[in-house]
Structure formats: structure tokens, C-alpha cells
Amino acid sequence: MKLSRGTANVRKKCWARVAAVQPIAKEDIGGYVGQLAAHLLEDVYVNLAEYTGQV
Predict the structure, then answer these.
(1) 3, 6, 21, 53: which one has the fewest Cβ atoms less than 10 Å from its Cβ?
(2) Beta partners for 45?
(3) What is residue 12's three-state secondary structure?
(4) What are phi and psi of 30, to 5 degrees?
(5) Please, is 46 exposed, middle or buried when counting C-beta atoms within 10 Å of its C-beta (0-12, 13-18, 19+)?
């Protein structure tokens, strides 16, 4: 999914690869952690469900 500059603490526009989702400790990524707006987080959930065949 495409993220605009400034969304979720990103410095430039980028893509979030839903297929590459993996668990990681917050301590390991520190300053890279941001927050997504509710509608964007919902898009992530929907894309992940589609990718894993749950929809």
C-alpha cells in the first residue's frame, strides 16, 4: 500500500509491503515507529486478509 510523505512518520513517500509483514519488537525499531490513521490501518488489515486467503 502506498504511504504519502509524513504519514506514519515516513520521511518520503513509500510503499508498505503487506506481504512482508512480520513480528518485530518495538525496541528494535525505535524511532521508525509511527501511527497510521484508522482508515489506512483498515486497508492494511484488508490487504493482509486478502493476501493470506482469509477473504
Answers:
(1) 53
(2) none
(3) coil
(4) 35, -110
(5) middle
Q: Residue written as cell 512518520?
A: 9
Q: How many domains does the structure of the chain reveal?
A: 1
Cα–Cα distances in Å, from 39 out to 26, 30, 31, 55?
22, 24, 23, 18
C-alpha atoms less than 13 angstroms from C-alpha of 8 in its C-beta half-sphere: 18
> What global pTM score does this model have?
0.59
Of residues 36 and 33, which shows the higher confidence score? 36
Burial label for 27, CB within 10 Å (0-12, 13-18, 19+), is: exposed
Q: By three-state DSSP, how is residue 21 classified?
A: coil
Model confidence at 55, pLDDT cuts 50, 70, 90, reads confident
